Each structure stands twice: as structure tokens, then as C-alpha cells.
Amino acid sequence: MAIYEQFHHISRWGDAFNVDNSPNTGSSTIVPADVRLNNKAEYISCEQVEPSISDQETNKPADKIQRRLAQNREAARKSRLRKKAYVQQLESSRLKLAQLEQELERARQQGIYKSGASGAGGFGLPATVNSGITAFEMEYTHWVEEQNRQICELRTALAAHVTDIELRILVESGLNHYCNLFRMKADAAKADVFYLISGIWRTSAERFFHWIGGFRPSEILNVVVPQIEPLTDQQHLEVCNLRQSSQQAEDALSQGVDKLQQSLAEDVASGLCSGNYRAQMVAAIDKLEGLENFVSQADHLRQQTLQQMVRILTTRQAARGFLAMGEYFHRLRALSSLWAARPRESA
Amino acid sequence: MHYQGESWGYYMPTSSMPSDTMERVVKLASESAVVIFSLSSCCMCHAVKRLFCGMGVNPTVYELDQDLRGKEMERALMRLLGNSQAVPVVFIGGKLIGSMDRVMASHINGTLVPLLKEAGALWL
């Protein structure tokens, strides 16, 4: 490998090679291992650009060869470092490009959404439909920034072993932050419930787990529970109960939404051949209003689950829980970016 | 007959309700351990029914759209709850629990199961 690299760098960086000693080309490329070790001292001295007095004194061909070998090695090393830096720059640019493409895609989807909503103006939708959603989008960006800041603060506080009182403040902030999100979503639901159902504001990996407008409560508990050991017997019982009750509530809401889908499809599909569909549309609108109720109940369930979790756990456990949750969603968002940036076969 | 309405934060109306309709609601609510007032077309009602069935409870369900006096009872329940949605509404052991959000909140905070056991709707 070393031989190849010397060859390679000699052919590319010819200036490192002195013309007047060309007959030595053949022998200088073959470097026995022990010669390399002996030349360590010379290798270091070759960092100096100016020829030293010792160079001029020792004008024997053997020394010249050793010097040139050392210079070659040095040039090869620098070349490798430059190549490494270049590749790293390429990698980070590719990641940046993928992120920009994602943002562009999201903006395009919003553009479609906006033009779609105004196209449905025949139903008399007010202009506030769009502004409600754009307001949510902006607020959500800030929400994520604040969330990341809180995660860092929690991690630092737990590592530094701060007092329970200080941790309590962080836990309360974490809980409040999620409650703020649910409030934001309630406002967005008034603007357009389908926006919440689709999960457009979340990244692609998060959207894979999307359930009635957000995360599943059971998903959260699966992430948190391994992080909060050890539990007392009482806590263990309460955690089990919480897992069971939240799963049961999730299942019940899922079945409700399934029924809603089914009856909506029936409403839209009734009397297809007759052509006249006014009555069906009225019934369908009623069902869609029911969908708003489900999104609201799902967010309510998320909030209740988080609040009960805080009630059951000690302050330190709850802090670890919120850190785990925050880190989990952060990783899902990062995963989405990495996935978008992965090398693909060109079309 | 008294309700646990206060502890759940509901405003108790004092007048202007056809007393026989309200009495009928109360009577039906105390005849079974778990009573759900529902509309057959309501999907949230379906969800509440599925929740109790999933817990192994067998609720008594009254579909108000299939009852002659259903409309009146709906109005009575709306006034009882103080909101525009009458159904679903759940009574356990004759006591008013509330709508889906109250039911879910009490299940999550662990108070629902003891209530069900007390009413004899759940056995260990």
C-alpha cells in the first residue's frame, strides 16, 4: 500500500521529485520496513522548507535518497489529509443539500395545500384557513428549537447531579412545553383537521408512526420505561396499569376512527349511479366534524398519559423520562434527514 | 337521588327541565352497573363502547335515536353536561362520570377501575 501511494503521489505531485537523481527512481520506490523506521528522525526534519546546513554537508547519494524518501512520505501524508478534508466537506454538503430538498418539498406541499384550499373556496371557506396553518408551522419550528434546548438542559442537569428542586422546574417546563404543543394543535385543528391527520409538519420517519394527529401514548411509554429503572413495587404496579389503560384507550379511539372511515365511505358512495349527491355530502360533512373530536380526544389522551407519568415517577425519574422522550424524537428527525441524504443510484 | 356532579366540576341546573325526562334518565342510569347513552350513528359512542368491552365490562347501552323520547333525553343530557354534545355519556353505579374525555382521564389516572369494581361491573 505504501509503495502504491508513493508511486501514485509521485506521478501526481512530480515536484517532490528531483530531476538530477532520476537514475535512482527505481530503487527509491522500494522502501524496506527497517529503512522507514530508521528514517523517522529525518522524516521529522523534512518539515523544514529551508535546506539545513547538515543537508549541504552530507552530499552523499545515500543521504539524498533517504531525504527524498522522507519528503515523499511527507507529501503523501499531506495529500491524504487534504483528500480526507475534501471528502468530509462533500459529505456535509450532501447532508445540507438533502435538508434543503426536504424543506423545499415541504414548502411545495404547503403551496399545493394553499392553492387547494383556495380552490375549495366554493364551499365558502374563509381565508383564515391558511393563516391558521401557516401560524402553526411557524410556531412549531420554534417549538422544536425550544425542545432541543430543553433536552440539552436536562442532560446537563442530570449529569451534574443538580438538586431535586432544580430538576422539578425542568420537569414542569417539559410537561408545559408538551401542553403548549397540544394547545397549538387545537388551534390548527379548527383551521383544518386534515392537516393534523396527515402529519405534514412532522418529518418522514415521525410520520411513519403517526396516529390520529400525533404520537401514540404507548410509543412514549415504551421509550420511557426502560430509562427509569429501578422502580419500587408500587411504581411498577402503577406503570403497568398506565401502560394497560393507555393501550386500551388507544385501541378504543382507533376503533372509533375505523368506524368513522367506514361510515364516511358509505356516505360518499351511496347513490353513486344516481348522480345527485347533495344529501351524501351533508352526511359526510357531519362525519368529518366527528373526526375533529377524535383528534381532540387523542391529544387529550397524550396529555393525560404524560401527566400521569409525572405523577407516578420521582422527580429524577421523570427528568430521565423527558430526556429520553426528547432524544427519541430528535433521533427520528435526524433519521429522516439521513435517509433523505443517503447515496442513491442516479436516475 | 343525588349526583356526584359536583366532584366532576359540572354545573347542576336547578330548574326548567321536564322533570319526568330527567327522572327517566336517572332511573335508566341506576338500573345497571354501567350505562351508556349513545346514538347509533356516533363514532365516539362506538369508541366508548369498545373501551368498556375491551376492559371486560358489559355496559347497558341506550341508543337515543332509537328511542321515542330520545330527543328530549338528548336535550336533558346536554343541559346536565353543560355542552352541545349529549352523547356519549357514561354512568357507573348510577353516578354520572361524563363524556369520553372524563372517562379516559379517569381510566388513565386509575380511578375508573375501582369505580367499576365498586359497582360490580368488574371482578378481579
From TrEMBL, chain A:
UniProt GO BP: DNA-templated transcription
InterPro entries associated with the record: bZIP, bZIP_sf, TGA_domain
Domain DOG1: 133-342
Recorded coiled-coil stretches: 83-110
Localization, UniProt: Nucleus
GO cellular component, one term: nucleus
Chief location of this protein within or outside the cell: nucleus
Entry keyword set: Activator, Coiled coil, DNA-binding, Nucleus, Transcription, Transcription regulation
Family annotation (SMART domains): BRLZ
BZIP domain sequence ranges: 62-106
One Pfam family named in its UniProt record: bZIP_1
Molecular functions (GO terms): DNA-binding transcription factor activity; transcription cis-regulatory region binding
DNA-binding among keywords: yes
UniProt similarity note: Belongs to the bZIP family.
Name of the featured protein: TGACG sequence-specific binding protein 7
Native source species: Hibiscus trionum (Flower of an hour)
From TrEMBL, chain B:
Entry keyword set: Cytoplasm, Redox-active center
Annotated Gene Ontology cellular component terms: cytoplasm
InterPro entries assigned: GlrX-like_pln_2, Glutaredoxin, Thioredoxin-like_sf
CDD domains, sorted: GRX_GRXh_1_2_like
UniProt keyword annotation of Magnesium present: no
Domain Glutaredoxin as annotated: residue spans: 34-97
Subcellular location: Cytoplasm
Protein name: Glutaredoxin domain-containing protein
